[in-house]
């Protein structure tokens, strides 16, 4: 008699929390969707933990793909210390992916996650089959290093307004942006059990400094990125200037660029109803 297989979880709010140890670091991660084949690994943004992914983006992809999210070293429930550079963070990511037994993946990245992804691809161009870069920019990109000032300024503004910092950092402050920001923050609370640990101030500061170094360093040769690449952003990104998405589009041959009007750093979250099906289709071709 055959034993019924486990039901496939396609809701990020219900994805089980797991850990794996590699190179002396215990990485916290979650996985969902049907297993088998090439997984989609999600690379998260500055200060984010497992709880900071929008389920309206992840869930449609998990309908047909094996999805994996993870905490970088020193963040959330992962052990260790946040590295000084994003190149080292890329090395950590490679260590995590290979520990899970994968030699080919797709990547969905946002903001700092997209920067780490680029560093990963420069070293391991054959690791990735398809690539999604959102709200991000290239190493040495113009005004990338200003992210520190913008971040602290918007955190201060959010404290005064008694709002979540992401409402200021990710969304415009018009009526549409304010509504989108509150809806986004609300969706991040849908998972009620077994939530992650928030990032601490020291780890946050180290990440900011690593992004600043990335912004002030010599550009990478992105001609190594030859796989299908989808790039997306809002037209008013104050954290990672929108023009840097166009810069990536120029540097990565045959890439596709989507810019959403009247939106900021979190344009893909504001317009999730449009973007999620596009991303899911791109990743299932």
TrEMBL record:
The keyword Hydrolase applies. Keywords: Hydrolase. SUPFAM superfamilies: alpha/beta-Hydrolases. InterPro entries: AB_hydrolase, AB_hydrolase_1, AB_hydrolase_fold. Gene3D superfamilies: alpha/beta hydrolase. GO terms for molecular function: hydrolase activity. Residues 40-269 form the AB hydrolase-1 domain. This is Alpha/beta hydrolase.
